[in-house]
Amino acid sequence: MPVLRHTTNALGALSTSVRLTAFGAVVAAAAALLPAAPASAAEPGAGGYADPSYASACAFHRYGEGETPPLSLFSADPLCVEYAKRDITVTSGGAARFLLAEPARFAIAVPACRYWQLDHWSVQATPGGTELVGWDGSYWFDKAEGSAAARVRNITVAGQPARAEEAARVIRPYDARLADALVSDAAGLRVQLPVSGLC
């Protein structure tokens, strides 16, 4: 798969003095990124996670901490992005940069017909500190086929390989939705979605 590297844009280089005082604010934002199919959308499909049918057509656009894709990617089909989310810290402003970048990242994803996102998460209290939890995610949808899938893997707790249930125990006091999503997505999830006539 081709890889397109991008330099830090103005938002990614933003220096902020905002300090988040609660770990819960970080994990709540993370929960919004793990797809959970509403009951009315579809039932999980057989076979769990598999890469999308358009995987060979993907040219991944890679972004660092707090970077956002340019608006020119709105026309990309498929739109394939990879995000580093390893600086989710309370003390360095990494959590604030993450929160500031997410609306633009969502805005570029929502109109896409075929979208695949890879991301690499690490949440820690201080820069360079042992991560509280970490994981790698793969999430995609295809509005023309009416399908979507999600998977998390390489889960760690306190810097050590862990099962999803162990990570969920650490996260649950702060955000039960994220804890549940980690467990379901670690097993791999595939759902059917309504087909879009625009794709």
Structure overview:
The protein is an alpha/beta fold and 199 residues long. 23% of the residues lie in helices and 29% in strands. Strands 1, 2, 3, 4, 5, 6, 7 and 8 form an 8-stranded mixed sheet that branches. Strand 5 (131-142) and strand 6 form a beta hairpin. It starts with a strand and ends in a 7-residue tail after the last strand.
What are its keywords?
alpha/beta; 23% helix; 4 helices; globular; 199 residues; disordered N terminus; 8-stranded mixed β-sheet
User: What Rg is obtained from the alpha carbons, in whole angstroms?
Assistant: 17 Å
Estimate the helix proportion, in percent: 10-25%
Beta content? 25-35%
List the total number of helices.
4
| Global morphology | globular
Q: How is the secondary structure organized here?
A:
Layout: E1 3-5, H1 23-33, E2 60-63, E3 79-89, H2 94-109, E4 114-124, E5 131-142, E6 147-157, E7 160-161, H3 164-171, H4 176-186, E8 189-192
Parallel strand pairs: 1-2, 2-3, 3-4
Antiparallel strand pairs: 4-5, 5-6, 6-7, 6-8
Helix pairs in contact: 1-4, 3-4
Please sum up the structure shown.
The chain has helices at 23-33, 94-109, 164-171, 176-186, and strands at residues 3-5, 60-63, 79-89, 114-124, 131-142, 147-157, 160-161, 189-192.
